[in-house]
Write a structure and sequence with these properties.
The structure is a single chain. The protein is built from 11 helices and 9 strands. The protein is an alpha/beta fold. The protein has a single domain, classed as P-loop containing nucleotide triphosphate hydrolases (Rossmann fold). Strands 1, 2, 3, 4, 5, 6, 7, 8 and 9 form a 9-stranded mixed sheet that branches. β6, α7 and β7 form a beta-alpha-beta unit. The radius of gyration is 20 Å and the shape is globular. Bound molecules: adenosine-5'-diphosphate and magnesium ion (MG). Adenosine-5'-diphosphate (ADP) binds next to α3, β7, β9 and α9.
């Protein structure tokens, strides 16, 4: 009887099964999936996601950037996408937007009726929208998919964890204690769902005075490094406070692209390099593990 019930349940949802299959196919073509998260809003997740994606694309990787911040989608504005630039396919679906030939991105923002619309979706709707972003969008072969998450550990992060079982997280924090308290929640979320954290980024870490060139510790300093030492999670880098991050973000031209020789762009470059190193090491380890498993299977 229970066997029959199971069989019926299996047959009851062919649409979901088909989605599941499509999602698996799409994800199998993407080498690394990285969710950028933090306990708080305004710590610079979107800024880090965008500059990480742009930085990786400047090193000739194929990169996708997926904005799953459904209530506060900032990626399109920060990348300079005008509404109306979306490619609509003949079947009514929407394609990813190209920032450059090897960087595509997608966000819920262009799908809203106007730019000031508030999204009032409950969990299941967010979940199906995010899943649709993965299976309906032509991501193609990618080296990296960077996922910009909203603050906290809610439906969006949960959906990413469930839908992309091999995703890893980058946790962004600012140096002060309050922000660090929140970040511990992100760390414990990742532990619970089994998502490896590839590292911590300390944003707004000191500011270089434009007049005297000395560093000013606006929000203290070194909290991220201390957290990294304490938890054993790698430290990926610190990004200083730079007013040009705000102006370039508002102008839709990321600082990595606008001021490639600035101190801040160099800080982002180091961050990208560390992400590349950590992810390449993960691949090597995975391959070694697979080889070991094969050896063990031999009679
Ligand atoms: N290092 C920084 N220096 C100056 N401004 C920054 C820095 N990082 C982020 N900002 C600004 O702070 C605001 C919030 O950043 P954002 O990336 O949108 O945060 P989140 O996605 O975590 O909410 C934006 O206006 C952004 O330009
Ligand atoms: Mg954001």
């Amino acid at each position: 009887m229970s066997q029959m019930k199971k069989e019926n349940e299996k047959r009851a949802n062919p649409v979901l099964d088909e989605q599941e299959q499509k999602i698996k196919e799409k994800l199998s073509k993407i080498e690394h999936k990285i969710m950028v998260m933090s306990g708080k809003g305004g710590v610079g997740k979107s800024t880090v996601s965008i500059n990480l994606a742009v930085g990786l694309s400047l090193q000739n990787f194929y990169v996708g950037l997926l904005d799953v911040d459904i209530h506060g989608p900032n990626v399109p504005k920060m990348l300079g996408l005008e509404r109306g630039e979306l490619q609509r396919r003949p079947d009514g679906t929407v394609g990813p937007v190209y920032y450059s030939p090897n960087l595509k991105f997608m966000s819920v923002e262009p799908l809203l009726p106007d730019k000031d619309s508030a999204v009032m979706w409950r969990g299941p709707m967010k979940m199906s929208a995010i899943r649709q972003f993965i299976y309906d969008i032509e991501w193609g072969e990618l080296d990296y998919l960077v996922i910009d998450a909203p603050p906290g550990t809610g439906d969006e992060q949960m959906t990413v964890a469930q839908t992309i079982p091999d995703a890893y997280a980058v946790v962004v924090t600012t140096p002060q204690e309050v922000a660090l308290l929140d970040v511990r929640k992100s760390i414990s979320f990742c532990k619970k769902v089994g998502m490896p954290i590839i590292g911590i980024v300390e944003n707004m870490s000191g500011m270089i005075c434009p007049h005297c060139g000395k560093a000013i510790d606006v929000f203290k300093r070194g909290g991220g490094e201390r957290l990294s030492e304490e938890t054993g999670i790698p430290f990926l880098g610190k990004i200083p406070v730079d007013p040009r991050i705000v102006t370039t973000g508002d102008a839709g031209k990321p600082i990595m692209a606008m001021y490639p020789n600035s101190h801040t762009a160099e800080a982002f470059e180091r961050l990208c390099q560390n992400v590349i190193n950590v992810t390449q090491t993960m691949i090597l380890k995975k391959k070694e593990q697979e080889e070991e498993n094969k050896e063990e299977e031999k009679p």
